[in-house]
Amino acid sequence: MFNLNNLVKAASVAALTVGVAFVAQPAQKASAQSIKHVFVIDLENHNFTQPSDDTKAPQQIFGNPAAPYLNSLITPGHPNAAQVSYASAYHNVLATPSGNNPSIHPSEPNYIWQEAGDNFGVLNDNDPYQVPGGTNQDALSLSQLLQEAGISWKSYQEDIDLTSDKSEVLPQDQWTVPLTRFSGTLDTYTNPYNGSHQFDFATKHDGQLFFTATNGGNDPTPSNPQVSHYAPLQQLQKDLDNNTVARYNLITPDQFNDSHTALTNGFTYNGVHYTGDSAAIAQGDNFLSIIIPQIQASKAYKDNGAIIIWYDETEGTNQNDFSHTLTEIVISPLAKGNAYESTLNYTHSSDLKSLQELFNVYTPEGGFLGDANTPGTNDLSDLFKPGAFDGSHKYSYHQRKFNYQWNFEDLNSK
């Protein structure tokens, strides 16, 4: 018979023997109405709203005819909006009402911020180990906290782990951690979302690649110790079908499907042929219209999962003021739903704070990472029904340095 008291006593003795402080405390009990799996979809370079006279900015997303699916999500009464909430005051990090305080740009600093609440002075789009580089490889990040707590995380990156002719996915024992950007056009490759023969993977759009604990070091071979966390986007559907997705799933389309870059010949969407920026927006909207229903059909989503649509940075003239907002949409059985609009102020730090709360992972000091620890930073709880953030992580085992937090709830039942 398993005896919890004996285990606690033994562990306490062992901790005292090596001079380590041991703390055993009950963790939050999982609520039947708490979020369990999270899917974050990263998109690029478009404001949700912007001043009408900002001719420098790409087109905004809100009300854009090239983005019918995304706009359907935020239209009250639309069937697609039934489990949707969104933020109407989501701003680029470090933005100010006047725009005088420069926010972080270009893309890469925002993706690093997504993981750690700081850009660590990085203001470039260089690959992780590129020289000159600009990354803080040893900083603590969200995915490292998850990893140390034994909480599963996965990075689904479009265009990676394909054969040399891009026609097929490589066997899993040949997958790698994608540390270098690549792009091109091959007749043997057809993108499953946009039908083109173009591909364009960018490391700058995955913050997990910029931290040693989660990129495994400068090792682009299948022997990289972190390779199991990185999968081609094609693997997502298989994992959804088999109910083997991680608790935290980061989904990064390539630079055509994330609305970053228009395809060379434009894009035909719902019978309309778009070019230029309209094509880029339509490509991203088309991608969302395919992948979101796939996620929603899964057991992981139906069991109180959550999808977050996230954009990296504001664009245009005076892009750092509060008149430029970013798209932030959550889709979940636990969302307030029917295109509920939250008018609270949010930034990328809000997402980070929320994910730390949802998974119950904190810094060694017991706080949030970087700017997410700043007083007044709103989490995303207003977008969800009451209780969605309560006790969402049943297994609260977190060990870092000499701090221990153990949950014996399930052990005691064995």
Structural account:
The structure is a single chain. The longest helix has 21 residues, at 276-296. Helix 3 (107-116) packs parallel to helix 9. The protein has two domains: 1-27 and 396-414, no CATH class; 32-391, Alkaline Phosphatase, subunit A (3-Layer(aba) Sandwich). It contains nine helices and 14 strands. With 414 residues, the protein is an alpha/beta fold. Strand 8 (267-269) and strand 9 (272-274) form a beta hairpin. Residues 1-30 and 391-414 have low confidence and may be disordered. It has an eight-stranded mixed sheet with strand order 6-3-7-1-10-11-2-12, with helices on both faces. It starts with a helix and ends in a 9-residue tail after the last strand.
Features:
single chain, 414 residues, alpha/beta, Alkaline Phosphatase, subunit A, eight-stranded mixed beta sheet, 9 helices, globular, disordered N terminus, disordered C terminus
Low-confidence stretches: 1-30, 391-414
Give the biggest beta sheet: 8 strands, mixed
Total count of domains:
2
Strands side by side in the biggest sheet: 6-3-7-1-10-11-2-12
CATH homology group of the largest domain: Alkaline Phosphatase, subunit A
Shape: globular
Helix/strand/pairing category? alpha/beta
Order of helices and strands: HEHEHHEEEHEHEEEHHEEEHEE
- Reported CATH architecture of the largest domain: 3-Layer(aba) Sandwich
Rounded to the nearest angstrom, the radius of gyration is 21 Å
Number-wise, the strands total 14
The separation of the N and C termini measures 8 Å
- Average per-residue pLDDT, rounded, comes to 88
